[in-house]
UniProtKB/TrEMBL annotation:
It holds the Pfam family Phage_holin_5_2. This is Phage holin family Hol44, holin superfamily V. It comes from Clostridium amylolyticum. The chain crosses the membrane at residues 6-25, 32-51, 57-77. Keywords: Membrane, Transmembrane, Transmembrane helix.
Length: 86
């Protein structure tokens, strides 16, 4: 997985946290599916800025990539399960 190279070790916890937040949002009846990636993007960028202790282009980029890795992981698991059901 090439995206992992752009996520430093200290942000891997952010990827895991985004994955868990996404699962909670998915199971919440009041949250629409289309809004979940947008919420995760805001949380991911905010979390990256907080962990990097400053607003920089790199922190924003790493927040976006962290969100992408979390969503990609979710989709890989979901699509693999769907393949098994066929």
């Amino acid at each position: 997985m090439e995206l992992i190279k752009f996520v430093p070790e200290q942000l891997m916890i952010l990827v895991a946290a985004l994955y868990v937040v996404g699962m909670f949002l998915k199971n919440s009846p009041k949250v629409l599916d289309w809004s979940i990636p947008w919420v995760l993007l805001v949380v991911g960028v905010g979390g990256s800025i907080a962990l990097q202790q400053g607003v920089t282009a790199l922190a924003v980029f790493q927040g976006i990539v962290s969100t992408g890795v979390a969503v990609l992981t979710n989709q890989l698991i979901k699509q693999t399960k769907n393949r098994e059901d066929e």
